Amino acid sequence: MVAVPDNVIAADALDFASIVRPGDRIVCGQAAAEPLTLTEALIAQKNNLPPFSMFLGPVYSQTFAPERTEGIALSSYGAMGNSLALAARGRLELVPLPYSQLCAEYESGERAADIVLIQLSSRSLARGLSLSLSHDYVLSAARKARVVIAEINPDAPWTHGAELLDDVPLHLCVAAGRGPLEVPAASLDETARRIAAHAATLIRDGATLQFGVGKIPEAIVSSLGHLKSLGIHSGLINDVTVDLIERGAITNGEKGIDRGVSVANQLIGTRRLYDHAHENAAISVRPTAYTHGHDVLKRVKRLVAINSAVEVGLDGSINAQTAGGMPVGGIGGQLDFVRGANASPGGRAIIALPAASKGKSRIVPTVETVTTPAELADAIVTEFGVAELRGCDVAERARRLIAIAAPEHREELSRAAFSARKDGVK
Predict the structure, then answer these.
(1) Angle at 136 between CA 131 and CA 141, to 5 degrees
(2) Which of 122-126, 171-175, 303-307, 332-336 has the lowest mean pLDDT?
(3) What is the pTM of this model?
């Protein structure tokens, strides 16, 4: 246990000019774990600082809006949340790595961090400090950094599994000026509900759920309240998880590991989720090596991985990264969890997406970027149904995927599939 330090300074006493050196690489907490007091102070002081770069994860605040970050070199493992605006303006350098690989790279020193900004919970004085909302690569970066600045937040939940250990140096501690960032659930439309209804037919009592970010995975999970004995082993959990716990659908009784405990790497939600997770031994925020590790995932019974995509090719290849050559997502944890679900006893890997967007089919002849290879494809779901791909040859995969494409695009896709088969015979 690391006790809450006595030397916590006020935010207005934080002077980045005395800390940042030319060329420094700064890493900060991602998503709801962004240390908002620290990041706001850094951006406010940027014009008085030497050139530096920042590595970001998903961004749900307005801290890094393009007009606020001129002159800062920004990079990330994906264009997610509000960082899409940065990518659209060519301001975000993409690192095409699986999310789980980042920890190993920071731990080995292959990827370096000079300054780390991290949010810690001091809500439970008796238990010491907690990583609270995220147990990710930021911690790995902090172990190697020259300077670690911690935002001490008494409003962030103290979470089991994320207790801060004394191998992380805290060079400077700053009092949080506000509570943790809240990320409300996405509003659902009719397409998302129809996709969820189809996907729900693939999920049975006793399944263990993993789900990604976005309204479609949320819609699917929120539609499962009729099921029993569900479990959670996921990269994230959100407010939808609390709904299912309160309805008795999630018990974690049949997972095969971590009986009675919902396991996640991050919490991304609102005060409702954060209060539910605070000192709750039935929720554990675990390191990436555990939440995403293949040796762990293959031990989980009936793991159902629920993720989305930008497009799916007629051979089953999945693109979750780019559209029209522009970054609009990332590898994230999709590849880890699809592999894990395929290895799990009774597992399923569901990729769910709208059949079309802005007049263009999202079932395509060939994807522009392969995030998850065709050999791992299992079930693809759109609002028009389910394409079960396991065990199918390429021609049958194409037929099944065309059947769940938007009707106005099916003829064109059929022609493309026929042409590809004819060219293959030559």
Answers:
(1) 95
(2) 122-126
(3) 0.95
